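Troubleshooting log. The previous structure file for this entry was overwritten by mistake, so regenerating from the original sequence record. Sequence copied from the archived sheet and checked twice against the printout by T.R.
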Amino acid sequence: MASDPPAGLREPFGLPVSLTVCDTPVTVTVPNVMGFDDQSAQNTITAAGLTVGPVTMQADCSASFGDVLRQDPAGGTTAATGSPVSLIESTGRQANGKPCVID
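Regenerated output below.
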């Protein structure tokens, strides 16, 4: 915060004083989108006032293609409005690119 004239100076009564006030960013709670499919996760993130950051795919046979495995920042934490939430989603395939084998 600043003022013109600077704080501590005595000025004649009635002269205007300009103030500069810092704006504190509004924070929101990051939604937990773990296990959501890609579209539902992105819709939930944007509805919370955040943006979707980078989406990275990871080989994983425990989840379907596009399901969220991890997110950053984590659900339940707070972030400034408009902050990005990055997602790591399942390819639904093995690391070698072959389809997952279900016994």
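Strands lie at 2-4, 18-20, 27-29, 51-58, 68-72, 78-80, 84-90. Archived copy saved in two places this time.
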